[in-house]
Amino acid sequence: MSKRGRKKGASGEQSRALLLAIAAEEFAHKGYYETKISTLVQKAGVTQPTFYLYFKCKEAIYQELIDLFSKGLSDLTNKSRLEPGIDFNSLPSRITKGLTGIFTFFSENQNLTRIGFFNSVEAEEIKKQLAIQIKENLISEVDNGYFQTELDMSLIAEILVGTIERLTLTKLFPGIKGPEEIASGIVHLLLNGMLSKRE
Amino acid sequence: MSKRGRKKGASGEQSRALLLAIAAEEFAHKGYYETKISTLVQKAGVTQPTFYLYFKCKEAIYQELIDLFSKGLSDLTNKSRLEPGIDFNSLPSRITKGLTGIFTFFSENQNLTRIGFFNSVEAEEIKKQLAIQIKENLISEVDNGYFQTELDMSLIAEILVGTIERLTLTKLFPGIKGPEEIASGIVHLLLNGMLSKRE
Amino acid sequence: MSKRGRKKGASGEQSRALLLAIAAEEFAHKGYYETKISTLVQKAGVTQPTFYLYFKCKEAIYQELIDLFSKGLSDLTNKSRLEPGIDFNSLPSRITKGLTGIFTFFSENQNLTRIGFFNSVEAEEIKKQLAIQIKENLISEVDNGYFQTELDMSLIAEILVGTIERLTLTKLFPGIKGPEEIASGIVHLLLNGMLSKRE
Amino acid sequence: MSKRGRKKGASGEQSRALLLAIAAEEFAHKGYYETKISTLVQKAGVTQPTFYLYFKCKEAIYQELIDLFSKGLSDLTNKSRLEPGIDFNSLPSRITKGLTGIFTFFSENQNLTRIGFFNSVEAEEIKKQLAIQIKENLISEVDNGYFQTELDMSLIAEILVGTIERLTLTKLFPGIKGPEEIASGIVHLLLNGMLSKRE
DNA sequence: TATGAATGAGTATTCATTCAT
DNA sequence: GATGAATGAATACTCATTCAT
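^ inputs. structure came back:
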């Protein structure tokens, strides 16, 4: 079999996947403009035309990575809709679980997350969607009397998104805290506030 | 007075300021790479060599804008250090005032903020500084028993930064809410939490 | 019979012919440079290496089409040599017949004609040959007193070629006039001229 | 002045004109696709960016040359409209003069003519326009009884265009015959025909 | 007979930057 | 203080062509 070491040759799907993985790495750390196709292919051990065999253009592979992230995230949030009508005390743990899911996904897909949630132009749109999702989840709880009724849920949703964003970058990615830990920290704070409970 | 009829009566300093203002606008909305020197000078009504009369390179003018933002922000935070030893009840308003200051600054310097707080690579460093600042402010209150002692102030500081970040983009810049309004919303939520107060 | 189920039952010769036909179509309408091998093989339902099984290179298949045209045309003109020593009155009809033959050939081989007579670099050479052929035919008539002796037969031959060329494109290919009609129109004009016959 | 020999430096208009002239030469002899920007600029003694200082893209400079030709030709034909109501005998000389004008223009602008009348895709459109122009000129003579009434003027116009085309390439450009000579040859033939005048 | 996979070599175009005046 | 003119250095992308199977 394969004499004279045809790189890995095998299935073209492999080359494609390799390029995609390397692109994720590069885009995540150098950004779109500082990532050069020439570098990508070099790291993948293929030539430039091979790149264009699998991707229409630089923009296209970038978009594909964003879509991958976006799809993963929306799959996640779709699944983790808070189901209403559950008893009061489970609320914190349910929210925590949802957040933990997100942080876990981010943690397992750091490069994709950097691209789709931080660097790309589309990041803003993705965050907007996430905020909407969260807001709807929150509102469904209001009716049940979980939360104070006068809360601006849109504001809180955005605060949550900002929080997720920031803690991902400063606590999760550097490995300072794990998904569950961060999630419960957020939940505890947001639900109870910072003040020492005084009578 | 200007002999030999200078075009548009632009003293050198004026050309420089004009270029800087236009650059802020362009960098803020198109980002570093999509902003072209050729466009800048065209909008400023000068030629390319003129640009290099005032700025060493593209990177330099960009950095100057970041520095402008960075300086403004740190001036602000330096000024608004929470002074300890003040009575308990004034805490919320003092924090609110600090945040309001930040949002006002951001609001009055949208382009600079977009560049220095959102788009640039240095943004991360700036946020990190801001978080440290906030954290120190918070810690000084802990001793006074304002806050629950078990709070992770580093986490909360990052949450605050993320919150500032997100609300600036989604509420402040679009004009949905004003600085004071946003600031007090944040403070109220973070201090008291979301839960309806039940006995 | 074809064992081992050849795809589409295409014997090699069929693939070759198919490629040739498609190439004629493409080259004729898009020209050499805008015709891509990738498009050819795609339209033929084969892969690129298959193309190179039958043709040495792009240039080669193009040349083959030109040769096909060139051969067809010279076969035609060889056959239709004006035979000398025929009586005076048959001359116009004999010339008309020759031209009709050419137009018919062109009409039946539009793609080939477009390539070999219009688009290719070789077209010039082919026209030159045709002009020589025509000139010789004409000269043989001069001796017999058919034509005015002072005519520049080389000039007239070129005029005929230009005429054929132009009318092929503007009358024959669009279907405005048929081969015979065009041929007799030319002959009538060239023999008698445009002037109204006045005594 | 100008130490250290800045090429010809002078006015940018000169560089532009030089590039245009060289482009005409190259396009005329190698065609669009075989003409490389790199060659153009090399022959002009400038660098590639300089090319793009004056022309938007390869296509643009090509089009500019075509437009130059097209404009020149239509100026010419506009000027040389046959004016009706002149006496019979002057007709041949008037037509001859018109044709001479065209051949002279072609002769003086060989490169442009090669591009605009022979090689480009637009050539066909330009010839179509020329044919229309000629046809209208001819028709205006019919009324005056110059020509046989049953002549198909569209056909004749196309014949003339084909004739012009061919003789330009085979007689004019090689310098075998001059403009006037070719023009009068055509006129004589087309008006009187080839046949020897027998009673 | 046919192909999946890959590539060598080229080619237009862009942009920040700099002389000489 | 300002400019007309020019350039060095990249970079994405294309296409005919070819292995190895």
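Residues 12-34 of chain A form the longest helix (23 residues). Residues 57 and 117 of chain A are 22 Å apart (CA to CA).
thumbs up if we can close this ticket
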